[in-house]
Amino acid sequence: MMDIALGLFALAYSGLVLFTVASSLRRLYPPVRSAVMAFVLSVVVHGATTLMAGELAKIAFFFWAVPHALILPLLLYSARRQARSTGA
After folding, report:
1. Residue 34 CA: distances (Å) to CA of 24, 61, 77
2. Exposed, middle or buried, 61 (CB in 10 Å: 0-12/13-18/19+)?
3. What is the predicted pLDDT for the residue at 76?
4. Helices (H), the chain
5. Using CA atoms, how far apart are residues 81 and 86, in angstroms rounded to an integer?
6. Residue 88, pLDDT above cutoff 70
7. Domain layout of the chain by residue ranges
8. pTM of this prediction?
């Protein structure tokens, strides 16, 4: 049961981080580029912190990578829809 709760937390955290950062970057870049830049920034930050986890790096990587990989298509779909609606 705790594994499911941790998985849902990781998914919610990933969605919150990616959509918030993409929304902030939307002021600088078009929607699709801001979504990709949000993912790249997340890869850099979470990748660096994962490397610091030592022997637990593999678990930390999966805690980060799997939810982000699940959220990325939703983020890109949302950005494409926004780009079409605004003409950006």
Report:
1. 8, 23, 12
2. middle
3. 92
4. 2-25, 31-51, 57-86
5. 9
6. no
7. 30-88
8. 0.79
